[in-house]
Design goal:
This protein has 267 residues and is mainly alpha-helical. 44% of the residues lie in helices and 4% in strands. It has one domain. Helix 4 packs across helix 5 and helix 5 runs antiparallel to helix 6.
Length: 267
């Protein structure tokens, strides 16, 4: 049997990609719950997250009883198509992703980076594959929410400006909870702030240097925007140079924790 060895790495990559995507599929859940209030999470964010999106993890840990109460509320009241609107579902899953991420950091705190939390097979399983919480009795990981639900079921790439992986180059953790009746404005606000944040995107430079998020997830945006320039112009407060090819910034995975150094970096 003849086999072209040059295509073997490509075939292997395709197989691994398919397996990884399948592993992101969210568990099937049954729920008759009514939409939940995100008031507890909103209160914690307003108390422990500053205007730069930096988190006071020690303060959040001190209020762990409230955080656990909110996480239990999420766990016991999963969305369903019968009782929930699309916006109610999206707000739930965005808040769940961010709240459970904070909870994961607290479980390992102090930690310098979320990527220092190891689990599973190196280069295959990551921190985002750890099944550390339950929704409607089913074990979930963070990839289940992002890839298996939000990217799969909702055609809105702005989620990438709202989901926060507890790292400096991630979108800022907003100091408010996402809620259904404000979701459109909140997602637009998250997009504007992310695009215009000099630390995350250098849109006044020539060439323009963008976050790696807009490289990794460009496939989610390209059906709505002809180019990354068009995407940036939609939310940018300033003119940008479109004469040169976009470059991408190195991603900073340091923890998005409130420290004098990190506050100075973002101001």
């Amino acid at each position: 049997m003849n086999f072209n060895k040059s295509i073997f790495p490509l075939v292997l990559l395709m197989i691994l990609s398919a397996l990884l995507w399948q592993s992101c599929a969210a568990p099937s859940i049954k729920s008759t719950a009514q939409p939940v209030s995100h008031t507890i999470w909103d209160s914690l964010l307003r108390k422990h997250v500053d205007d730069n999106g930096l988190v006071d993890y020690k303060g959040m840990a001190a209020d762990s009883n409230q955080l656990n109460e909110y996480l239990e509320l999420l766990s016991l009241n999963a969305p369903n198509k019968k009782n929930w609107s699309d916006n109610e579902e999206m707000a739930y899953w965005i808040n769940a992703y961010n709240a459970f991420t904070v909870d994961l950091i607290l479980d390992y705190y102090p930690v310098k980076s979320i990527k220092d939390i190891k689990n599973g097979i190196p280069f295959v399983s990551t921190v985002w594959d750890i099944k550390f919480f339950k929704i409607a009795g089913e074990a979930f990981d963070l990839n289940n929410i992002e890839h298996g639900i939000l990217r799969k079921d909702f055609d809105d790439p702005r989620i990438h400006f709202a989901l926060v992986c507890a790292s400096m180059s991630c979108p800022k953790l907003q100091n408010f909870a996402f809620v259904a009746d404000k979701l459109e404005d909140q997602l637009n606000q998250a997009a504007r702030e992310f695009i215009n944040e000099p630390f995350r995107n250098e849109i006044t430079e020539s060439p323009v240097k963008l976050s790696k998020l807009l490289d990794w997830y460009w496939g989610d945006f390209k059906d709505k925007y002809d180019s990354r320039f068009e995407l940036v112009k939609t939310y940018s407060d300033q003119e940008i140079d479109t004469s040169k090819e976009v470059q991408f910034l190195e991603y900073n995975w340091e923890l998005n924790e409130q420290t004098p150094e990190k506050t100075k970096l973002l101001n």
